[in-house]
Structure formats: C-alpha cells, structure tokens
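Notebook entry, structure prediction.
Reason for the run: the old model in the group folder had no record of what sequence produced it. Starting over properly, with the input documented here first.
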Amino acid sequence: MTCWVTVGDLRRMEIIDCVTSVARPIHDFGDEFMSDEATAAVGLRAGFPPGRAFYCRGRFGVLGEAPEEVVRSVQGFLGPGLVTAGWRAGRAVMPAAEAAACYAGAVRQWGRAHIPADVDVEHFNHLAHRLIEAADGDALPLFAGWRAQPCPDNDPVGAAMQRVHVLREHRGACHLAAVRMCGLSARTAMVVDLGVEQATSYGWERPEPAAAQVIPLWRRAERLTDELQAPLYAALTAGERAEFARLVDELTASPVPRGPGA
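New structure, fully documented this time:
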C-alpha cells in the first residue's frame, strides 16, 4: 500500500513507496519498447540481421568493445548463448558506440509514438534528470553507460523515454546485485519471477522449476533492490516524489495519440 502523509494541501510520498510505485510501470514500459516490432525494424533498417543482434549490440553497446564474457556478466538476466550470439552478429554491423547511439535513437522514436500526448514531459524530464544525476553508479556499469549517453534537449518526448530507459537500467543493475547478494543465480531468479517457459524465451536453456526454498531468497532480493534504489529517490522531496510517481503513471498509461510533429 502506498504511504501518503498529508500536510496542509501537500501530498507527500515516502521513499520506499515511491520506489515500489514506479518500478513496475518503468520496467514494463521499457519491455514494450524492447519487444516491439517497430524497434526491431529500426535495427533492420540500420543493417542488423533479424534476431537479437540490434538488441544486444545496441543496448550493451554503451559498454564499448567489451569481450562477450564481460557483456554477459554485466547484463545478467539473459541466457549467455543469446547474448553471445546477438553480440557477435551485431559486431559485424557497426562499432559499439555507434550501435548504442542507434539504439538510443530507437528509444526516443518509440517514446514519441507511445508517450501520451497530455503528459507534462518537461516536468518529468526535470525530475528524472535530477534522479539520474544523483545516482551512485559504482558497480552499475550498464546504468552508468546509459547515463553517459547523450540525451537531446530539443526532443523532450524522446528524452523522457530515454530517461525511462536509463532508470530501468538502474533498477535492473541493482536487482542483479541484490540477486547475487542473496545467493541466487540470475537464471533461478528469472525462473522464480517469470516461470520456466518465459525464462526459456529469455535464452536460458533447460531451466528447471524453482525449488520452494528459493522463493524467500527471491523476495528478499526484491526488497534489497528497493533499498538499493532508495538513495536515488531521496534526491527528491516528499512532494516531488508524489509528483514523479503520478507522472510515471501518466507517461506509461494507454497512449493518447500525439499530433504531427509532436
């Protein structure tokens, strides 16, 4: 349950409640972008072969020309074979930095098509930028790489989507750290969270159902992820956290079509 404190006309949101309120919408909105055929089409037009090449080379290109085993260890939650194949296939198309820039362009393009027209993206960008800049990037290289990716000021809607993506990478990196700290493998965490069939679709070969004793460990990892993100949201006041949570809900809601040139 979300915890609100009323002081006069001001609605204030506690830190952990803000963390948990925005986590799922940010994750799911990013998932919609990543799985959309329109996103894949951007990669195909850029010369990437069908499959996961654009996804792997673009999303993980912020790490630079890293060896495959380094990319696999940083991203964590995808099966190693999927990442290796995608990274290798994408390497032949363009350098890592160029692929990351192309992927960032796809992020912004998708945002322009899917963020509802009535969202105050300027205010969202102001708050999201403060959150991202306040974050401690130590031990979170994928987040740090995406934070360093240029975000254009002249495209506020696209910039809002890129900041959603960066915040999603922050939570993903924190969650990977939390999972390992709780003694779980990434594969086990994926099976607990998504089930065997879905884990297979994310590249894990022959995953087995999770044993009952690992469920409490996964729940502990979820709580620890929230705690690792808490310093980020402490950068906002209680009132600003309430505003940010509201804006995230609006931004990730069913789209209201944007007009031409919006």
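Summary: Confidence is low (pLDDT under 50) at residues 1-10, 256-262.
The old model has been moved to the deprecated folder.
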